[in-house]
Amino acid sequence: MSDTLLSVQGVQTYYGNIRALAGVDVEVKKGEIVSLIGANGAGKSTLMMTICGSPQARTGTVTFDGEDITRLPTHLIARRRIAQSPEGRRIFPRMTVYENLQMGASLDNLKYFNEDVEKIFTLFPRLKERQGQRGGTLSGGEQQMLSIGRALMARPKLLLLDEPSLGLAPLIVKGIFDAIKKLNQNEGLTVFLVEQNAFAALKLSDRAYVMVNGQVTMSGSGKELLANPEVRAAYLEGGRH
Amino acid sequence: MEYFVQQLVNGLTLGSIYGLIAIGYTMVYGIIGMINFAHGDIFMLGGFAALIVFLVLTSVFVGLPVVLLLLVMIAAAMLTASLWNWTIEKMAYRPLRGSFRLAPLITAIGMSIALSNFIQVTQGPRNKPIPPLVSSVYNVFGISISLKQLIIMLLTVILLTTFWYIVNKTSLGRAQRATEQDRKMAALLGIDVDRTISVTFIMGASLAAVAGTMYLMYYGVTVFTDGFIPGVKAFTAAVLGGIGSLPGAVLGGLLIGLIESLWSAYFTIDYKDVATFSILAIVLIFKPSGILGRPEVEKV
Protein backbone atom coordinates (compact mmCIF):
# COMPACT_ATOMS: atom_id res chain seq x y z
CA MET A 1 0.00 0.00 0.00
CA SER A 2 1.29 3.38 -0.91
CA ASP A 3 -0.19 5.13 2.08
CA THR A 4 1.84 3.08 4.54
CA LEU A 5 4.30 5.38 6.26
CA LEU A 6 6.02 3.03 8.65
CA SER A 7 6.19 -0.69 8.37
CA VAL A 8 7.96 -2.92 10.86
CA GLN A 9 8.27 -6.52 9.76
CA GLY A 10 9.52 -9.47 11.74
CA VAL A 11 11.81 -7.32 13.84
CA GLN A 12 13.90 -8.96 16.51
CA THR A 13 16.04 -6.82 18.77
CA TYR A 14 18.58 -8.04 21.29
CA TYR A 15 20.37 -6.47 24.22
CA GLY A 16 23.43 -8.66 24.29
CA ASN A 17 21.97 -12.14 24.38
CA ILE A 18 18.60 -11.08 25.71
CA ARG A 19 15.87 -10.90 23.15
CA ALA A 20 13.70 -7.86 23.75
CA LEU A 21 11.64 -8.02 20.57
CA ALA A 22 10.66 -11.44 19.28
CA GLY A 23 9.48 -10.76 15.76
CA VAL A 24 7.28 -7.69 15.75
CA ASP A 25 5.02 -6.58 12.90
CA VAL A 26 3.54 -3.12 13.10
CA GLU A 27 2.20 -0.79 10.46
CA VAL A 28 1.40 2.91 10.61
CA LYS A 29 -0.41 4.61 7.75
CA LYS A 30 -0.11 8.24 6.80
CA GLY A 31 -2.27 10.48 8.92
CA GLU A 32 -3.02 7.86 11.54
CA ILE A 33 -2.63 7.89 15.28
CA VAL A 34 -1.55 4.43 16.33
CA SER A 35 -0.83 3.41 19.87
CA LEU A 36 1.04 0.56 21.40
CA ILE A 37 -0.01 -0.59 24.83
CA GLY A 38 1.42 -3.22 27.10
CA ALA A 39 2.86 -3.90 30.51
CA ASN A 40 6.25 -2.81 31.78
CA GLY A 41 9.07 -4.66 30.08
CA ALA A 42 6.94 -5.77 27.14
CA GLY A 43 9.38 -4.14 24.73
CA LYS A 44 7.41 -1.03 23.79
CA SER A 45 10.25 1.41 24.26
CA THR A 46 12.66 -1.00 22.62
CA LEU A 47 10.45 -0.98 19.55
CA MET A 48 10.46 2.82 19.52
CA MET A 49 14.24 2.91 19.72
CA THR A 50 14.62 0.13 17.15
CA ILE A 51 12.64 2.18 14.66
CA CYS A 52 15.26 4.89 15.21
CA GLY A 53 18.13 2.42 14.79
CA SER A 54 19.40 2.50 18.36
CA PRO A 55 19.73 -0.43 18.87
CA GLN A 56 19.35 -1.78 15.36
CA ALA A 57 17.12 -4.73 14.67
CA ARG A 58 19.02 -8.00 14.45
CA THR A 59 16.54 -9.47 11.96
CA GLY A 60 13.55 -8.12 10.13
CA THR A 61 13.07 -4.81 8.38
CA VAL A 62 11.90 -1.32 9.21
CA THR A 63 10.54 0.53 6.20
CA PHE A 64 9.75 4.22 6.24
CA ASP A 65 8.04 5.93 3.34
CA GLY A 66 9.01 3.08 1.05
CA GLU A 67 12.68 3.10 2.07
CA ASP A 68 14.41 0.40 4.07
CA ILE A 69 15.89 2.19 7.09
CA THR A 70 16.79 -0.86 9.17
CA ARG A 71 20.55 -0.43 8.81
CA LEU A 72 20.73 3.35 8.69
CA PRO A 73 22.56 5.12 11.53
CA THR A 74 20.28 6.91 13.98
CA HIS A 75 21.03 10.44 12.83
CA LEU A 76 20.17 9.59 9.22
CA ILE A 77 16.88 8.05 10.32
CA ALA A 78 16.14 11.28 12.18
CA ARG A 79 16.88 13.17 8.98
CA ARG A 80 14.11 11.20 7.25
CA ARG A 81 11.86 13.18 9.64
CA ILE A 82 11.16 10.64 12.30
CA ALA A 83 11.15 12.54 15.58
CA GLN A 84 10.97 10.90 18.95
CA SER A 85 10.13 12.01 22.44
CA PRO A 86 11.94 9.09 24.04
CA GLU A 87 11.59 7.17 27.27
CA GLY A 88 13.01 9.17 30.16
CA ARG A 89 12.49 12.39 28.19
CA ARG A 90 16.22 12.90 27.67
CA ILE A 91 16.22 16.66 27.99
CA PHE A 92 19.68 18.19 27.65
CA PRO A 93 20.10 19.15 31.32
CA ARG A 94 22.69 21.89 30.90
CA MET A 95 20.98 23.64 28.02
CA THR A 96 18.19 26.12 28.39
CA VAL A 97 14.65 25.29 27.37
CA TYR A 98 15.13 27.54 24.37
CA GLU A 99 18.33 25.77 23.35
CA ASN A 100 16.65 22.40 23.76
CA LEU A 101 14.02 23.55 21.29
CA GLN A 102 16.73 24.83 18.98
CA MET A 103 18.28 21.38 19.07
CA GLY A 104 14.94 20.01 17.90
CA ALA A 105 15.05 22.30 14.91
CA SER A 106 18.61 21.47 13.93
CA LEU A 107 17.53 19.43 10.89
CA ASP A 108 16.53 22.60 9.06
CA ASN A 109 19.29 24.63 10.66
CA LEU A 110 16.70 26.77 12.47
CA LYS A 111 15.10 27.89 9.20
CA TYR A 112 11.55 27.70 10.54
CA PHE A 113 12.54 28.15 14.16
CA ASN A 114 10.86 31.43 15.01
CA GLU A 115 7.60 30.40 13.43
CA ASP A 116 7.57 26.93 14.99
CA VAL A 117 8.68 27.95 18.44
CA GLU A 118 5.65 30.22 18.73
CA LYS A 119 3.41 27.23 18.01
CA ILE A 120 5.12 25.24 20.73
CA PHE A 121 4.78 28.10 23.17
CA THR A 122 1.07 28.33 22.36
CA LEU A 123 0.76 24.61 22.92
CA PHE A 124 2.76 24.68 26.16
CA PRO A 125 2.71 28.20 27.61
CA ARG A 126 4.70 26.87 30.55
CA LEU A 127 7.72 26.44 28.31
CA LYS A 128 7.58 30.07 27.30
CA GLU A 129 7.78 31.12 30.94
CA ARG A 130 10.76 28.83 31.47
CA GLN A 131 12.59 29.41 28.20
CA GLY A 132 15.74 30.76 29.82
CA GLN A 133 15.92 28.06 32.46
CA ARG A 134 18.19 25.04 32.24
CA GLY A 135 16.49 21.83 31.19
CA GLY A 136 17.81 19.94 34.21
CA THR A 137 16.01 22.24 36.61
CA LEU A 138 12.53 21.69 35.14
CA SER A 139 9.95 19.55 36.86
CA GLY A 140 9.13 16.16 35.38
CA GLY A 141 5.99 17.43 33.71
CA GLU A 142 7.72 20.44 32.23
CA GLN A 143 10.47 18.19 30.90
CA GLN A 144 7.82 16.03 29.30
CA MET A 145 6.34 19.05 27.55
CA LEU A 146 9.78 20.12 26.45
CA SER A 147 10.55 16.67 25.13
CA ILE A 148 7.39 16.62 23.03
CA GLY A 149 7.93 20.21 21.94
CA ARG A 150 11.48 19.46 20.90
CA ALA A 151 10.30 16.51 18.82
CA LEU A 152 7.68 18.68 17.12
CA MET A 153 10.31 21.30 16.28
CA ALA A 154 11.81 18.86 13.80
CA ARG A 155 8.68 19.12 11.60
CA PRO A 156 8.33 15.35 11.68
CA LYS A 157 6.52 13.17 9.19
CA LEU A 158 6.23 10.61 11.93
CA LEU A 159 6.13 11.50 15.59
CA LEU A 160 7.09 8.79 18.06
CA LEU A 161 5.93 9.45 21.59
CA ASP A 162 7.11 7.22 24.39
CA GLU A 163 4.71 7.62 27.32
CA PRO A 164 3.74 11.24 26.82
CA SER A 165 1.52 11.12 29.92
CA LEU A 166 4.23 9.89 32.29
CA GLY A 167 4.53 12.05 35.37
CA LEU A 168 1.96 14.58 34.26
CA ALA A 169 -1.14 15.81 36.02
CA PRO A 170 -4.37 14.49 34.44
CA LEU A 171 -5.32 17.93 33.22
CA ILE A 172 -2.02 18.40 31.41
CA VAL A 173 -2.29 14.89 29.97
CA LYS A 174 -5.61 15.84 28.53
CA GLY A 175 -4.05 18.99 27.11
CA ILE A 176 -1.28 17.02 25.46
CA PHE A 177 -3.64 14.42 24.04
CA ASP A 178 -5.90 17.17 22.70
CA ALA A 179 -2.87 18.82 21.15
CA ILE A 180 -1.81 15.56 19.49
CA LYS A 181 -5.32 15.09 18.13
CA LYS A 182 -5.35 18.63 16.82
CA LEU A 183 -1.98 18.30 15.11
CA ASN A 184 -3.18 15.06 13.60
CA GLN A 185 -6.42 16.50 12.28
CA ASN A 186 -5.20 19.91 11.16
CA GLU A 187 -1.75 19.12 9.86
CA GLY A 188 -2.07 15.43 9.10
CA LEU A 189 0.71 14.53 11.52
CA THR A 190 1.22 10.80 11.84
CA VAL A 191 1.70 9.68 15.42
CA PHE A 192 2.85 6.40 16.89
CA LEU A 193 2.70 6.37 20.64
CA VAL A 194 3.47 4.08 23.52
CA GLU A 195 1.25 4.43 26.54
CA GLN A 196 0.65 2.93 29.94
CA ASN A 197 -2.44 5.06 30.20
CA ALA A 198 -4.25 2.63 27.91
CA PHE A 199 -7.68 4.15 28.24
CA ALA A 200 -6.69 7.59 27.05
CA ALA A 201 -4.46 6.15 24.35
CA LEU A 202 -7.10 3.86 22.92
CA LYS A 203 -9.67 6.65 22.91
CA LEU A 204 -7.27 8.86 21.00
CA SER A 205 -6.07 6.31 18.49
CA ASP A 206 -7.32 5.13 15.13
CA ARG A 207 -5.70 1.80 15.70
CA ALA A 208 -3.72 0.11 18.42
CA TYR A 209 -1.43 -2.82 19.12
CA VAL A 210 -1.08 -4.74 22.33
CA MET A 211 2.37 -6.00 23.15
CA VAL A 212 3.29 -8.84 25.52
CA ASN A 213 6.79 -10.17 26.06
CA GLY A 214 8.25 -8.71 22.92
CA GLN A 215 5.44 -9.78 20.65
CA VAL A 216 2.32 -8.14 19.31
CA THR A 217 -0.58 -10.25 20.58
CA MET A 218 -3.54 -8.19 19.48
CA SER A 219 -4.39 -5.35 17.20
CA GLY A 220 -7.45 -3.50 16.08
CA SER A 221 -9.13 -0.15 16.06
CA GLY A 222 -9.08 1.85 19.27
CA LYS A 223 -12.78 1.21 19.81
CA GLU A 224 -12.49 -2.54 19.28
CA LEU A 225 -9.71 -2.88 21.77
CA LEU A 226 -11.52 -0.70 24.28
CA ALA A 227 -14.43 -3.12 24.08
CA ASN A 228 -12.28 -6.25 24.12
CA PRO A 229 -12.72 -8.09 27.44
CA GLU A 230 -9.12 -9.33 27.55
CA VAL A 231 -7.76 -5.84 27.05
CA ARG A 232 -10.17 -4.48 29.58
CA ALA A 233 -9.11 -7.01 32.17
CA ALA A 234 -5.41 -6.59 31.61
CA TYR A 235 -4.96 -2.89 30.94
CA LEU A 236 -8.07 -0.93 31.71
CA GLU A 237 -10.04 -2.08 34.71
CA GLY A 238 -8.32 -1.32 37.94
CA GLY A 239 -5.95 0.98 36.16
CA ARG A 240 -8.58 3.57 35.47
CA HIS A 241 -10.00 5.92 38.03
CA MET B 1 56.57 46.26 42.89
CA GLU B 2 57.95 46.50 39.36
CA TYR B 3 59.53 43.14 39.80
CA PHE B 4 56.20 41.71 40.87
CA VAL B 5 54.34 43.15 37.88
CA GLN B 6 57.11 41.89 35.62
CA GLN B 7 56.59 38.40 36.96
CA LEU B 8 52.87 38.81 36.54
CA VAL B 9 53.36 39.55 32.84
CA ASN B 10 55.65 36.56 32.42
CA GLY B 11 53.21 34.37 34.28
CA LEU B 12 50.27 35.46 32.17
CA THR B 13 52.18 34.70 28.98
CA LEU B 14 53.06 31.23 30.10
CA GLY B 15 49.54 30.80 31.45
CA SER B 16 48.04 31.73 28.09
CA ILE B 17 49.95 28.92 26.45
CA TYR B 18 48.84 26.44 29.12
CA GLY B 19 45.29 27.68 28.77
CA LEU B 20 45.27 27.13 25.01
CA ILE B 21 46.45 23.55 25.46
CA ALA B 22 44.11 22.92 28.38
CA ILE B 23 41.05 23.71 26.25
CA GLY B 24 41.78 20.68 24.09
CA TYR B 25 41.91 18.41 27.14
CA THR B 26 38.76 19.82 28.59
CA MET B 27 36.69 19.74 25.38
CA VAL B 28 37.60 16.17 24.56
CA TYR B 29 36.91 15.14 28.13
CA GLY B 30 33.59 16.92 27.99
CA ILE B 31 32.44 15.25 24.82
CA ILE B 32 33.62 11.67 25.19
CA GLY B 33 34.69 11.50 28.82
CA MET B 34 38.28 10.50 28.17
CA ILE B 35 41.59 12.22 28.78
CA ASN B 36 43.44 12.48 25.49
CA PHE B 37 46.95 12.01 26.84
CA ALA B 38 48.34 12.41 23.34
CA HIS B 39 47.18 16.02 23.37
CA GLY B 40 50.47 17.30 24.79
CA ASP B 41 52.29 15.60 21.94
CA ILE B 42 49.90 17.13 19.44
CA PHE B 43 51.03 20.46 20.88
CA MET B 44 54.67 19.47 20.39
CA LEU B 45 53.95 18.21 16.88
CA GLY B 46 52.36 21.56 16.05
CA GLY B 47 55.54 23.29 17.17
CA PHE B 48 57.62 21.04 14.91
CA ALA B 49 55.34 21.66 11.94
CA ALA B 50 55.77 25.40 12.49
CA LEU B 51 59.54 24.99 12.74
CA ILE B 52 59.77 22.96 9.54
CA VAL B 53 57.63 25.44 7.64
CA PHE B 54 59.81 28.24 8.98
CA LEU B 55 63.00 26.55 7.82
CA VAL B 56 61.59 25.78 4.38
CA LEU B 57 60.15 29.24 3.86
CA THR B 58 63.23 31.14 5.02
CA SER B 59 65.53 29.07 2.88
CA VAL B 60 63.40 29.39 -0.25
CA PHE B 61 62.28 32.99 0.08
CA VAL B 62 64.63 35.47 1.63
CA GLY B 63 63.28 38.47 3.47
CA LEU B 64 59.67 37.43 4.01
CA PRO B 65 57.78 39.76 6.34
CA VAL B 66 57.61 38.33 9.83
CA VAL B 67 53.84 38.68 10.10
CA LEU B 68 53.30 36.60 6.98
CA LEU B 69 55.85 34.08 8.16
CA LEU B 70 54.14 33.70 11.53
CA LEU B 71 50.71 33.36 9.97
CA VAL B 72 51.86 30.64 7.59
CA MET B 73 53.62 28.86 10.46
CA ILE B 74 50.47 28.94 12.57
CA ALA B 75 48.29 27.77 9.70
CA ALA B 76 50.62 24.90 8.88
CA ALA B 77 50.85 23.89 12.51
CA MET B 78 47.07 23.93 12.89
CA LEU B 79 46.58 21.89 9.76
CA THR B 80 49.16 19.26 10.69
CA ALA B 81 48.06 18.93 14.29
CA SER B 82 44.38 18.74 13.31
CA LEU B 83 45.07 16.06 10.75
CA TRP B 84 46.99 14.00 13.30
CA ASN B 85 44.46 14.39 16.07
CA TRP B 86 41.60 13.60 13.70
CA THR B 87 43.37 10.46 12.51
CA ILE B 88 44.22 9.36 16.04
CA GLU B 89 40.61 9.75 17.14
CA LYS B 90 39.33 7.85 14.13
CA MET B 91 41.83 5.02 14.27
CA ALA B 92 42.70 4.63 17.92
CA TYR B 93 39.83 5.96 20.02
CA ARG B 94 36.66 5.47 18.00
CA PRO B 95 36.86 1.67 17.79
CA LEU B 96 37.16 1.61 21.59
CA ARG B 97 34.30 3.97 22.29
CA GLY B 98 31.89 1.27 23.43
CA SER B 99 34.44 -0.54 25.52
CA PHE B 100 35.35 -0.01 29.18
CA ARG B 101 36.64 3.38 30.25
CA LEU B 102 40.26 2.47 30.78
CA ALA B 103 40.82 1.13 27.27
CA PRO B 104 40.86 4.49 25.41
CA LEU B 105 42.86 6.01 28.25
CA ILE B 106 45.62 3.45 27.92
CA THR B 107 45.47 3.81 24.15
CA ALA B 108 45.91 7.55 24.56
CA ILE B 109 49.06 7.02 26.62
CA GLY B 110 50.26 4.70 23.87
CA MET B 111 49.54 7.31 21.22
CA SER B 112 51.44 9.87 23.27
CA ILE B 113 54.53 7.67 23.38
CA ALA B 114 54.15 6.78 19.71
CA LEU B 115 53.95 10.42 18.67
CA SER B 116 56.97 11.59 20.65
CA ASN B 117 58.99 8.62 19.42
CA PHE B 118 57.89 9.31 15.88
CA ILE B 119 59.21 12.87 16.14
CA GLN B 120 62.38 11.63 17.83
CA VAL B 121 63.06 9.22 14.97
CA THR B 122 62.12 11.51 12.11
CA GLN B 123 63.42 14.81 13.48
CA GLY B 124 66.26 13.66 15.71
CA PRO B 125 66.55 13.75 19.47
CA ARG B 126 68.41 17.05 19.86
CA ASN B 127 67.06 20.51 20.69
CA LYS B 128 65.92 22.35 17.58
CA PRO B 129 66.60 26.07 17.76
CA ILE B 130 64.78 28.76 15.83
CA PRO B 131 66.26 32.26 15.35
CA PRO B 132 64.33 34.99 17.18
CA LEU B 133 61.41 36.06 15.03
CA VAL B 134 60.27 39.08 16.95
CA SER B 135 62.67 40.70 19.33
CA SER B 136 61.23 44.13 20.10
CA VAL B 137 60.88 44.87 23.79
CA TYR B 138 58.85 47.76 25.15
CA ASN B 139 59.40 49.51 28.41
CA VAL B 140 56.25 50.51 30.19
CA PHE B 141 56.78 52.14 33.61
CA GLY B 142 59.95 50.19 34.14
CA ILE B 143 58.41 46.88 33.16
CA SER B 144 59.71 45.29 30.03
CA ILE B 145 57.10 43.64 27.87
CA SER B 146 58.31 41.91 24.77
CA LEU B 147 56.36 41.90 21.54
CA LYS B 148 56.37 38.11 21.77
CA GLN B 149 54.46 38.27 25.01
CA LEU B 150 51.98 40.73 23.59
CA ILE B 151 51.38 38.53 20.55
CA ILE B 152 50.82 35.48 22.73
CA MET B 153 48.36 37.21 25.03
CA LEU B 154 46.52 38.94 22.21
CA LEU B 155 46.23 35.74 20.19
CA THR B 156 44.95 33.90 23.25
CA VAL B 157 42.25 36.49 23.83
CA ILE B 158 41.17 36.39 20.17
CA LEU B 159 41.09 32.61 20.03
CA LEU B 160 39.20 32.30 23.28
CA THR B 161 36.57 34.78 22.22
CA THR B 162 36.13 32.97 18.92
CA PHE B 163 35.92 29.66 20.69
CA TRP B 164 33.53 30.88 23.30
CA TYR B 165 31.33 32.18 20.49
CA ILE B 166 31.44 28.93 18.53
CA VAL B 167 30.61 26.75 21.50
CA ASN B 168 27.87 28.94 22.93
CA LYS B 169 26.24 30.62 19.98
CA THR B 170 26.52 28.48 16.86
CA SER B 171 24.69 25.35 15.82
CA LEU B 172 28.00 23.50 15.75
CA GLY B 173 28.58 24.43 19.39
CA ARG B 174 25.06 23.40 20.30
CA ALA B 175 25.60 20.07 18.61
CA GLN B 176 28.81 19.66 20.61
CA ARG B 177 27.14 20.44 23.89
CA ALA B 178 24.21 18.18 23.06
CA THR B 179 26.57 15.33 22.18
CA GLU B 180 28.38 15.93 25.44
CA GLN B 181 25.19 15.80 27.51
CA ASP B 182 23.33 12.97 25.81
CA ARG B 183 24.89 11.32 22.79
CA LYS B 184 21.93 9.09 22.03
CA MET B 185 19.44 11.94 22.13
CA ALA B 186 21.67 14.07 19.93
CA ALA B 187 21.59 11.31 17.32
CA LEU B 188 17.81 11.06 17.63
CA LEU B 189 17.68 14.74 16.67
CA GLY B 190 19.74 14.16 13.55
CA ILE B 191 23.15 15.17 14.90
CA ASP B 192 26.01 13.22 13.33
CA VAL B 193 27.72 12.29 16.58
CA ASP B 194 30.89 10.88 15.01
CA ARG B 195 31.39 13.99 12.97
CA THR B 196 30.80 16.23 15.98
CA ILE B 197 33.40 14.33 17.98
CA SER B 198 35.87 14.58 15.08
CA VAL B 199 35.32 18.32 14.89
CA THR B 200 35.99 18.60 18.62
CA PHE B 201 39.33 16.83 18.21
CA ILE B 202 40.18 19.13 15.31
CA MET B 203 39.31 22.23 17.30
CA GLY B 204 41.36 21.11 20.29
CA ALA B 205 44.32 20.27 18.07
CA SER B 206 44.16 23.66 16.35
CA LEU B 207 44.45 25.49 19.64
CA ALA B 208 47.25 23.21 20.78
CA ALA B 209 49.04 23.91 17.50
CA VAL B 210 48.81 27.66 18.01
CA ALA B 211 50.14 27.14 21.53
CA GLY B 212 52.94 25.00 20.09
CA THR B 213 53.94 27.70 17.63
CA MET B 214 53.86 30.34 20.37
CA TYR B 215 55.91 28.13 22.69
CA LEU B 216 58.49 27.69 19.95
CA MET B 217 58.61 31.42 19.28
CA TYR B 218 58.78 32.29 22.99
CA TYR B 219 61.54 29.92 24.02
CA GLY B 220 63.27 29.73 20.63
CA VAL B 221 63.77 25.99 20.89
CA THR B 222 61.83 22.76 20.71
CA VAL B 223 62.54 19.11 21.26
CA PHE B 224 60.60 15.87 20.91
CA THR B 225 59.98 15.59 24.67
CA ASP B 226 58.36 19.03 24.78
CA GLY B 227 54.91 17.53 24.67
CA PHE B 228 55.27 15.98 28.07
CA ILE B 229 55.83 18.69 30.68
CA PRO B 230 53.65 21.42 29.12
CA GLY B 231 51.09 18.70 28.42
CA VAL B 232 51.00 17.63 32.06
CA LYS B 233 50.85 21.27 33.17
CA ALA B 234 47.96 21.99 30.81
CA PHE B 235 46.20 18.86 31.98
CA THR B 236 46.68 20.07 35.54
CA ALA B 237 45.27 23.42 34.48
CA ALA B 238 42.18 21.73 33.06
CA VAL B 239 41.66 19.78 36.28
CA LEU B 240 42.32 22.81 38.46
CA GLY B 241 39.83 24.92 36.54
CA GLY B 242 37.29 22.11 36.48
CA ILE B 243 37.54 19.56 33.72
CA GLY B 244 34.81 19.93 31.13
CA SER B 245 34.61 23.69 31.61
CA LEU B 246 36.05 25.97 28.92
CA PRO B 247 36.51 29.10 31.04
CA GLY B 248 37.85 26.81 33.76
CA ALA B 249 40.59 25.57 31.45
CA VAL B 250 41.74 29.10 30.72
CA LEU B 251 41.53 30.17 34.33
CA GLY B 252 43.46 27.07 35.39
CA GLY B 253 46.09 27.78 32.74
CA LEU B 254 46.56 31.36 33.84
CA LEU B 255 46.73 30.35 37.50
CA ILE B 256 49.38 27.74 36.86
CA GLY B 257 51.38 30.16 34.74
CA LEU B 258 51.23 32.73 37.52
CA ILE B 259 52.06 30.29 40.32
CA GLU B 260 55.06 29.05 38.37
CA SER B 261 56.55 32.40 37.54
CA LEU B 262 55.85 33.98 40.93
CA TRP B 263 57.25 31.00 42.78
CA SER B 264 60.35 31.00 40.63
CA ALA B 265 60.75 34.73 41.21
CA TYR B 266 60.53 34.73 44.98
CA PHE B 267 61.53 31.21 45.99
CA THR B 268 63.66 28.56 44.46
CA ILE B 269 62.97 27.70 40.86
CA ASP B 270 63.61 24.00 41.48
CA TYR B 271 60.40 23.71 43.46
CA LYS B 272 58.07 25.49 41.09
CA ASP B 273 56.41 22.26 40.00
CA VAL B 274 56.00 21.23 43.62
CA ALA B 275 54.22 24.52 44.26
CA THR B 276 51.94 24.06 41.25
CA PHE B 277 50.90 20.55 42.12
CA SER B 278 50.51 21.38 45.83
CA ILE B 279 48.04 24.09 44.95
CA LEU B 280 46.22 21.64 42.68
CA ALA B 281 46.00 19.20 45.57
CA ILE B 282 44.75 21.86 47.97
CA VAL B 283 42.08 23.10 45.55
CA LEU B 284 40.91 19.57 44.86
CA ILE B 285 40.55 18.86 48.58
CA PHE B 286 38.14 21.75 49.02
CA LYS B 287 36.58 21.74 45.56
CA PRO B 288 36.87 18.24 44.11
CA SER B 289 35.37 19.25 40.78
CA GLY B 290 37.84 22.10 40.27
CA ILE B 291 37.33 25.85 40.49
CA LEU B 292 34.62 26.21 37.85
CA GLY B 293 33.75 22.55 37.43
CA ARG B 294 30.21 21.41 37.96
CA PRO B 295 29.37 18.88 40.62
CA GLU B 296 28.57 15.45 39.26
CA VAL B 297 25.04 15.36 40.65
CA GLU B 298 22.48 16.70 38.24
CA LYS B 299 18.75 16.48 38.36
CA VAL B 300 17.56 14.70 35.24
TrEMBL record, chain A:
Domain ABC transporter: 6-238
Keywords: Amino-acid transport, ATP-binding, Nucleotide-binding, Transport
GO MF term set: ATP binding; ATP hydrolysis activity; branched-chain amino acid transmembrane transporter activity
Keyword ATP-binding in record: yes
Domain of life assignment: Bacteria
BP term (GO), one: L-amino acid transport
Family: Belongs to the ABC transporter superfamily.
Protein name: General L-amino acid ABC transporter ATP-binding protein
UniProtKB/TrEMBL annotation, chain B:
An example Gene Ontology molecular-function term: L-valine transmembrane transporter activity
GO biological process: D-alanine transmembrane transport; L-alanine transport; L-isoleucine import across plasma membrane
Protein name: General L-amino acid ABC transporter membrane protein
Major site of localization recorded for this protein: membrane
Membrane topology category: Multi-pass membrane protein
Subcellular location(s) of the protein: Cell membrane
PANTHER family tied to this protein: BRANCHED-CHAIN AMINO ACID TRANSPORT SYSTEM PERMEASE PROTEIN LIVH, HIGH-AFFINITY BRANCHED-CHAIN AMINO ACID TRANSPORT SYSTEM PERMEASE PROTEIN LIVH
Alphabetically ordered keywords of this record: Amino-acid transport, Cell inner membrane, Cell membrane, Membrane, Transmembrane, Transmembrane helix, Transport
Family: Belongs to the binding-protein-dependent transport system permease family. LivHM subfamily.
Biological classification of the source: Bacteria, Pseudomonadati, Pseudomonadota, Alphaproteobacteria, Hyphomicrobiales
Pfam families from the UniProt entry: BPD_transp_2
GO cellular component, one term: plasma membrane
InterPro entries recorded: ABC_transp_permease (IPR001851), BCAA_transport_permease (IPR052157)
Transmembrane feature ranges: 12-35, 42-62, 68-88, 100-120, 140-167, 197-218, 238-262, 274-293
